Structure formats: structure tokens, C-alpha cells
Amino acid sequence: VQLQASGGGLVQPGGSLRLSCAASGFNVNYWVVGWFRQAPGKEREGIGCISARDTTRFFADSVKGRFTISTDTDGSTMYLEMNDLKSEDTAVYYCATADPPYGSQWSGDRCLRPIYKYWGQGTLVTVSS
Questions:
Q1: How far apart are CA 45 and CA 72, in angstroms?
Q2: pLDDT for 111-129, tens place per residue?
Q3: Would you say residue 53 has pLDDT above 80?
Q4: DSSP of 65-91
Q5: Contacts of 113 (CB under 8 A, 6+ apart)
Q6: Which of 17, 22, 84, 87 has the fewest CB atoms within 10 Å distance of its CB?
Q7: In the 8-state DSSP scheme, what is residue 110?
Q8: Are 42 and 26 in contact (CB under 8 A)?
């Protein structure tokens, strides 16, 4: 199982960016997947995830309404679409997954917690004018 995040870069405040997470060894449409970020000096934060139980999307309050998650129909790639970016969105962004089965620890928005087994390398997003 491997994940590779890409698409980071420098963007102005109010701008948009789409991150990709390429998956190998698993299908993002059938496994729980999540996006996390870590800013300098701060803890890793769960910002969005897709529940493997019913494909419900969950988002952190800090990004709700601005960020969305989508996947390819073939299950090979997951995307994080980020709009109306703010300076506080500056961070290294990671994608993650865990293999089934999924017990109660994965129910609801618990997929926003950093309890995943597999992590991709991060991609840096810098929001600055």
C-alpha cells in the first residue's frame, strides 16, 4: 500500500488549489481515506476524510465550505479541492489510509483523527501574497 500526494505550491490568499493523492495497492473508493495537514510548530490536523462505511465526507470546521474531497471512479486517485485559501491554510498536506476491517473507531467523523496506518509523503501548500 502506497500513497503519493502532489499538487502543492504557492497560491495567493483567496485562490484555489487542487491536491492529488495517487493510491497503489488499494482502492480509494473502498478504503477509508483522509487528508491531514501540519503547520510549523503545530500538531497534525485532520481536515477531511471519507468514511469507508458509507462514503460520507467529513470536514474540519476550519475548512468546511471551502474544501471538498473527490475520487476517481477507478479508485486510483483522491483529490482535495481547496478554495478561498487563507494564510492559515499554509501547511504540509498529507493523505492517509488504513486497511479494513473498520471497527467502531472509524465510525462517523472519527476518520478525522490521525489513526491511519499508511501515510503518503507531504506536499507543501503556501498561501501568501
A1: 24
A2: 999 999 999 999 999 999 9
A3: no
A4: TTEEEEE-TTSSEEEEEE-S--GGG-E
A5: 46
A6: 87
A7: G
A8: no
